[in-house]
From TrEMBL:
Superkingdom of origin organism: Bacteria
GO-annotated molecular function: inositol monophosphate 1-phosphatase activity; metal ion binding
PROSITE patterns: IMP_1 (PS00629)
One of the Pfam families matching this protein, by short name: Inositol_P
Binding site for Mg(2+): 73, 91, 93-94, 218
InterPro entries: Inositol_monoP_metal-BS, Inositol_monophosphatase-like
Keywords carried by this UniProt record: Hydrolase, Magnesium, Metal-binding
Named cofactor requirement(s): Mg(2+)
One record GO biological process: inositol metabolic process
Protein name: Inositol-1-monophosphatase
Amino acid sequence: IMTDTVNWKNIHDHVVEWVLEAGESLKRAVKGHLNVESKSSPDDLVTNMDKQTEQFFINKVRTSYPGHQIVSEEGFGDEVKSTKGILWFIDPIDGTMNFVHQKRHFAISVGIYEEGVGKVAVIYDVISGDIYHCIAGHGAYINDEKLDELDSGELKTSVVAINGTWLSKNRRIDPEIVRGIAEHTRGTRSYGSAAIELAYVAYGILDGYLSMRLAPWDFGAGLILIDEVGGKATQVDGQPLQLLEQNSILIGKKGVHAEMLRYVQEGIQGGKYVQQK
Ligand code: IPD
Ligand code: CA
Ligand code: CA
Ligand code: CA
């Protein structure tokens, strides 16, 4: 097996170069006319730029790294059934609604795994210009600045990102559980891009994040960054995340994660619902 000869630094540098190039097109595109369609529901948007950016990355990966497989949102990737080999998780635009409406707070997210183990992560917040990136084992960075190992944190002094969906009536989690968590934080935020929210947790400017439904391309890169700085990530009920499936996600500084998990577990024991699928 040749896999231990993989040059992760090379791959990392390629990804950084590619997100910067694709980011230039996205910056031009937000100023012009976007072709917006909805997919599964009126709030599930896709634009010409989501598709174009995904195709851009897929061409790059297929040309430079032919044996690698790609899991991506808009359907141009591979049908991946196992975590064998080298897998790229690509979200060409994370936060499409922000891209269309806010014209900011969207990201390109690229996470690369070998045999299910995170190796390289790049999250590019296009309009702010910040790149969160790492090669596993070599530290995580925002631009050129190395990120600190996360402290344990505590819920009562934490800022946790929670989408309003989960605080309102929904079929995946009893909003009472989520409100219970929110009430014990210092404050909550919602930025509309899971990739950016995960990068913020890695950076330590958010202490936690909860979502009931994320796809592998949403969390693939963020998870590698969080691991690198010593954060904790599971499904909301504490089960391990499944790399190739849609998951709920509970992520944060170790102590904050543990406290949030306790509220979820107490809720479940008290008969409140949590629905993974
Ligand atoms: C979405 C964003 C959003 C999260 C959704 C994702 P998309 O990704 O990350 O913050 O709440 O679950 O689907 O569709 O904009 O790439
Ligand atoms: Ca989408
Ligand atoms: Ca996404
Ligand atoms: Ca997307």
